[in-house]
Design goal:
By secondary structure, the chain is α/β, with parallel strands linked by helices. The protein is built from 13 helices and 16 strands.
Length: 380
């Protein structure tokens, strides 16, 4: 039996935040998107104040805030105001071992680095070495089931990145675009020209947009499932503008293991999710199962990113999976036991499934478990 190789070291993020505190220099975030927003909250919880965020001069806009805790400077303005500072890279291309271009761009930066674990918390559980070692046989079983070396290497890198809070483990294995990066590389993941696509956690249409690109709009049907009200409005506009409304059914519900009413954190972002407890932003939301929604109609491709509710969503799709054996692409990074639990459920439900694993972002998020029964060659 092949076994997962675990590296137990010191937390890179803990060492970095300790060094930032010791230096006493201003902390600057390079980037103004979701990564920078999340990094600022992460640092604040560690007792570290962010002095400002910075963007390239060509992206500087007069409407961006120039004062207060959220102020944004251009690189030129930064160099005039600060002679020395610590810089954190807060965009996907900044997750790299090659920092030379940034040292040239930011000569005043005494430290240039990135944070690896900023998304932990909320619906994203941390994963530590003690948990992995205590459940090593279960993780080893997943590792052994994976069909190709890239899957095994990616899983190993993902686990080590999580437990050491060090994204650099992932850098050689990141594959973009999410869900569809391997359709021309792995025959079992190749798409047909007549897919019936169920997108659970459709957000604002980002995955559907990628799907339309890789299929050149050749498909039979899309079920776009998205409960968040703000996301739903954007999703509806996207579907209309893409000219696919006649072939798309929008499902404004949570996808789960049974129909009913659930608590849902409705915050108009990709982090909106089902929750157990009421609180600010939590609303009553209708939930339903894939089996109920499809009502015995076929599905050939199911993509799920439902913020940790993937197992329940699969439990509510038993009949569909057994009847139609759809290609599955499942977010497997929200819960620390996602990989062993999701793999075990599917292997017991449909032993014919073959498993692949890919990481699609360099921060131990957007790690996807694929399950396929598609044979080679895939029919047109």
């Amino acid at each position: 039996m092949e076994k997962l190789k675990i590296v137990i070291g010191k937390s890179k993020d803990d060492a970095l935040t300790a060094a930032l505190k010791r230096s006493g220099l201003p902390v600057v975030l390079y980037g103004i998107g979701l990564i920078a927003d999340t990094a600022r909250i992460f640092l604040q919880e560690k007792g570290i104040r962010v002095s400002c965020r910075v963007v390239d001069d060509k992206y500087m806009d007069p409407v961006l805030p120039h004062t207060g805790p959220d102020r944004i400077l251009s690189i030129s303005q930064l160099q005039k105001e600060f002679s020395a500072y610590n810089l954190l890279l807060c965009f996907f291309r900044g997750y790299t071992n090659d920092l030379k271009p940034y040292r040239q761009l930011f000569p005043g930066a005494q430290t240039i680095d990135y944070l690896s674990s900023i998304y932990e918390g909320g619906a994203l559980q941390p994963l530590d070495s003690s948990y992995v070692l205590a459940h090593k046989p279960a993780f080893d079983s997943v590792y052994e089931l994976l069909e190709d070396s890239l899957s095994q290497d990616s899983m190993e890198a993902y686990i080590n990145a999580k437990i050491n809070k060090d994204a650099s483990y992932l850098f050689p294995f990141v594959r973009r675009q999410q869900y569809f990066s391997e359709i021309d590389q792995v025959p079992a993941l190749k798409l047909h020209q007549n897919e019936v696509f169920v997108n659970c956690g459709a957000f604002t249409g980002d995955t559907i947009k990628d799907f339309l690109e890789v299929t050149s709009c050749h498909f039979d049907k899309i079920y776009a499932c998205e409960p968040d009200s703000a996301n739903l409005q954007k999703l509806t506009r996207f579907i209309q503008s893409a000219g696919i409304a006649e072939r798309t059914e929008i499902v404004p519900k949570c996808i789960s293991d049974k129909a009913g009413t659930v608590n849902f954190l409705n915050q108009g972002s990709m982090l909106s999710h089902k929750t157990e407890a009421p609180g600010p932003g939590v609303v009553a939301m209708q939930a339903d199962t894939i089996d109920n929604i499809l009502n015995s109609r076929p599905a050939s491709l199911i993509v799920m990113d439902v913020e940790g509710n993937e197992l329940k969503a699969l439990e509510g799709a038993r009949k569909t999976i057994l009847a139609h054996q759809p290609l599955l692409a499942l977010a497997a990074y929200h819960k620390k036991d996602d990989l062993p639990v999701l793999t075990s459920f599917l292997k017991n439900l449909l032993p014919a499934y073959r498993f692949y694993f890919r990481v699609h972002k360099p921060m131990a998020i957007d790690a996807v478990l694929y399950a396929s029964t598609r044979n080679e060659p895939v029919p047109a």
